[in-house]
Amino acid sequence: xxxxxxxxxxxxxxxxxxxxxxxxxxxxxxxxxxxxxxxxxxxxxxxxxxxxxxxxxxxxxxxxxxxxxxxxxxxxxxxxxxxxxxxxxxxxxxxxxxxxxxxxxxxxxxxxxxxxxxxxxxxxxxxxxxxxxxxxxxxxxxxxxxxxxxxxxxxxxxxxxxxxxxxxxxxxxxxxxxxxxxxxxxxxxxxxxxxxxxxxxxxxxxxxxxxxxxxxxxxxxxxxxxxxxxxxxxxxxxxxxxxxxxxxxxxxxxxxxxxxxxxxxxxxxxxxxxxxxxxxxxxxxxxxxxxxxxxxxxxxxxxxxxxxxxxxxxxxxxxxxxxxxxxxxxxxxxxxxxxxxxxxxxxxxxxxxxxxxxxxxxxxxxxxxxxxxxxxxxxxxxxxxxxxxxxxxxxxxxxxxxx
Length: 403
Prior knowledge:
Helices cover about 75% and strands about 0% of the residues.
């Protein structure tokens, strides 16, 4: 006769199930994030865009996400309303706006509008997904969020894989596929997930929390460390395909399919970085994992011009390592933010931190192709190393013991 299941074991089992469900939903819904970026090589030819103009396909989503985070944070949406419903409505609207991009966009202005609106809805996906995970676990959050951010990373890279496997389809079909995936992710959270036992009571609306979450010094230092990390992350993700295109110009890998596959592998390997980094954080803590990740990606940033001249195999191997570490610190910053923010306003704090972080990505994403026009793509990624340096400085100011 089997032993009866204790209440704590039951909660743990349900928590693990919730983690899988939320991570799967984030993976599906985040496929809309880089739909425009993955389509950029095709749209450069179809709409006769420059590389700087094509960067706005990514920047538009970032700008929308920034606006969305401040909208969600100002109204405390993830704390005042049930976060599962906030996630579902955001996924539904995101799928609709991304589908409009696929069906209607006929040039950069309309594409910019629909991509920006998609970005607004993503503010109800990533930060809210983190709150949903936090509502199920009180300890080892860096490990659990590592799985979640790994799913986000894989979802972000997924449009490149769709483009590779479906090379016979045009970009509109591929973007439309991402909308279907996003809708499925929203339904999964609404219908298959229940509220976590540590979900705080609905907080009252307080617009001042948009800024008051920064009153606590450790949270502020965590946020500024995260901002340095974000300076590098999305510029690397969105521009790596152009760096590769310049390096392998004329080689077998220079085909659209070859570059898309490489971009998927380099970005997608970050999902392993998030998961393994989270696993290691259980033993050495979130701060040490984040510091090591920042150090590795900082070195690779500053040496990217030298790496450019290496043989193809070694270069790709080092770019895979870069892709692994460029995002492995992200869930650790989120876990630290949850630790140091007001507990009843976790959703607002994560949303504000994400919003400001993504505002910084707009600058670095726009500067990177501008640097490429001046210095060439060989050196264009070098200046991204400033971000990890800043992140290391602020991370060093945090206490070791999490007090």
